[in-house]
Design a protein that fits this description.
Radius of gyration: 19 Å
Number of strands: 7
Structural class: alpha/beta
Distance between the termini: 60 Å
Shape: elongated
Number of helices: 6
Strand order of the largest sheet: 2-1-5-4-3-6-7
Helix content: 25-40%
Order of helices and strands: EEHEHEHEHEEHH
């Protein structure tokens, strides 16, 4: 991977076709939330499918926890849809059949010239596409567990949500002041 892609740096704001063919940028998909980006080999890979199956349950938690998830592979649109449907995923899958990311980040998996996939990476991003952590998953156990991702998301959310601990007196005081202002504006 390029040397400038490391924790604390900004991840490139790639724009690729999603499973419906609509071009979506990573920043658009992220919004103001933390995001996990999975750079995968593709639906043909049993390791990728197993990781995605684990992510299905985590994604349900991410939806209520204000975090985003995106999978990007070098599959074409048909393969992308088959992969997404096959694991019963409900998050965005992006197709990089042109291998823009693979080339830009220098992550071609040279051990598989038949499929020419990316070396699998799982990247945890803070808001603003800031890299928090990178996992390299060429070997399956190099990929993060769902518990590791939960802990990463907790750490990122604690950093980016000023109201993480709503029992803090200053937050309660600010809430009360806002409520009083609302009441006064109704009069």
């Amino acid at each position: 991977m390029r040397a400038d892609i490391k924790p604390g740096a900004r991840f490139p704001d790639y724009s690729l076709a999603d499973q419906t063919g609509k071009h979506r940028s990573l920043s658009e998909l992220q919004g103001q939330d933390p995001m996990i980006v999975v750079l995968g080999r593709g639906g043909f890979c049993p390791k990728d499918r197993r990781q995605a199956e684990g992510l299905v349950e985590l994604h349900r938690e991410m939806e209520v926890g204000y975090a985003q998830l995106v999978t990007i592979t070098t599959d074409n649109l048909v393969q992308t849809n088959e992969y997404r449907s096959g694991v019963d995923a409900h998050w965005t899958f992006l197709s990089d059949a042109g291998r823009v990311i693979q080339k830009d980040l220098d992550i071609a998996e040279y051990t598989d010239p038949t499929h020419n996939p990316m070396i699998p990476h799982t990247i945890v991003l803070e808001p603003g596409l800031v890299i928090y952590k990178i996992y390299v998953g060429y070997w399956f156990f190099g990929r993060p567990t769902m518990d590791e991702l939960r802990l990463d998301l907790r750490a990122v959310l604690q950093k980016c949500r000023p109201d993480w601990d709503i029992s803090a007196p200053e937050l309660k005081a600010a809430w009360e002041a806002r409520r009083e202002a609302e009441i006064l504006s109704l009069r």
